[in-house]
C-alpha cells in the first residue's frame, strides 16, 4: 500500500465494506461507513471551532470509539491530536497543554474538575469543549468535502511519555511515521479484516492508540473496545465477544492468570490466534501461568513510543519456516524497516553474543522530541536514537533485553520518571530527603519505592502515600515507603540508588 496520510486506508475500507464493524463498544457496533462519516463531520466541526492546519487538538477522555472519529477528522484538516492520560493530575495536564500549545481541548464531562484546575493560570489557555458537546455539534455539521490537508510530513499524533526527567517528553509522529509503523505491525502479525482485536488498553497511551487500535483500522479489522481493563471482565469478554487478537502489558496477563487460577476454571479462549505483550519485560513465570491457567501462549515483542516496532516474532516468517520462532526469553527478530546498532561505551559495535546499548532508527520516528532540542540532543547521536536498553543477539538473529542503563521505572507497562515523584515528596515539610527507585514486583514488574529521610520523627508511611495522592497520577504513587537515616551518596555526589532497591 502506498498512502500519503493516515486517513486514506480507513476511508478505503469504509468505501469497500461500509457495513463492516470498525468498533464494538458497550454492545453497540460502529461501522466503517459510520466511522468515516463521523470523521468528516468532526472535521467540519473543528474548522467551525477555529482549528486550522498545523494546530494541535488535545483530547482528555476514557476509552470511547469517537476518539478515532476525532483523530481522523483532525488529520483531514491537517491538524494533530494530542491524547492526554485521563489519570493525569491537573498539573500534569497543564504541562501537556502548555508544551503542546494545544488550540482546543476536548474532554470528557466527568473530568471537568481536572480540566478547570489544569487550565488555571495557563496563558494562552486552549478553547475548551466537552466531548459530548463536540459530538452533538459534529452530528449537526455538514460532512467535510474539502481536500485532505494532512499528509506526508505533517504532524498527526503527539504522545507524551515519561522518561528519566521530571516532565513528559512529546513524541511527535507524522502521517508517514504512523503509516510506516502501522504497516509494520499489520504485516508481521498478519492482521486482516476478519480479525477482531480486543482492546482494553487506554487509548491515551501509544500502545492502545496505535499498536492496537490504529493498526486494526488500518487493516480493516474490528476493534472490540473496553472502557478500561479489568482482568475478569477481559476474560469474560474473550469468551463472549470471540476476539482473535489480544494485546496487553505483562501485568495485565499476570492479573488475568491469577483470576483464572483462583476461579479454578478454564475460560473459553479458543477464538484467540494471537496474544502479544510489550511495555515491560515479560518474565517466563507469567508465560507459564497464562499457559497453565488460561490456556493461552503470550508472546513478547519490543517497541518504544519513539520507534515502533523494533523486535518481534513475525508470523509471516513462521508460516514459511516454523523453526524460525524465537526461543524463550527472546523479544524476537528485527522488524523491517527499523535499523539497529548494539554498541559499547565507546560507541563501537559489539560482536555477536556480546551485550551492547541499543540504538535504533527508522521511518516510524520523526527524529526529534517536540519543541525540546535539549532532550532531543541527549537522546540522539548521528541520527540514531539511544534507547538506554542493554541488548544481546544470538547467531540466529534473535534479540534479548538484558537490562537498562537508565533510571526509569516501568510499572505495569507505565513509564515513571523517579525525579517527578521525588519532587512531589520533597514538598512535604516532614521529609528532609528522598529518593525513588523501582522495586521488583512479580505482577507489575516494578513498583514505585520511596526511600525517605525524615525531618518530622512522627512521619508515617501512610502520611507519605496520602501526600503523594493528588500530586502525581495514582500509578506513580509509592507502593513501598522505607525510612532511612541518610541517603547513600557516591563520590560524584549522586545518590547510589542501586543500594536502595
Written account of the structure:
The structure is a single chain. The chain has a seven-stranded mixed sheet with strand order 2-1-10-9-11-12-13, with helices on both faces. Strands 16, 17, 18, 19 and 20 form a five-stranded antiparallel sheet that branches. α8 links the parallel β9 and β10. Among the domains are: 180 residues, ANL, N-terminal domain (Rossmann fold), CATH 3.40.50.12780; 75 residues, Luciferase, Domain 3 (Luciferase, domain 3), CATH 2.30.38.10; 91 residues, GMP Synthetase, Chain A, domain 3, CATH 3.30.300. With 501 residues, the chain is of the alpha/beta class.
Return the CATH architecture of the domain at 7-186. 3-Layer(aba) Sandwich
Main pleated sheet? 7 strands, mixed
Which quaternary structure do these chains form?
A: single chain
Computed Rg: 23 Å
Instruction: Return the CATH class of the domain at 7-186.
Output: Alpha Beta
Give the proportion of residues in helices. 25-40%
- What is the tally of beta strands? 25
Low-confidence runs (pLDDT<50, min 5 residues)? none
CATH fold-type name of the domain at 7-186? Rossmann fold
CA(first)-CA(last) distance: 48 Å
* Proportion in β-strands: 15-25%
Major β-sheet strand ordering: 2-1-10-9-11-12-13
User: Which structural class is indicated by helix and strand composition?
Assistant: alpha/beta
Number of alpha- plus pi-helical segments: 15
Outline type: globular
CATH-level-4 superfamily name of the domain at 7-186: ANL, N-terminal domain
Mean pLDDT, to the nearest integer, reads: 93
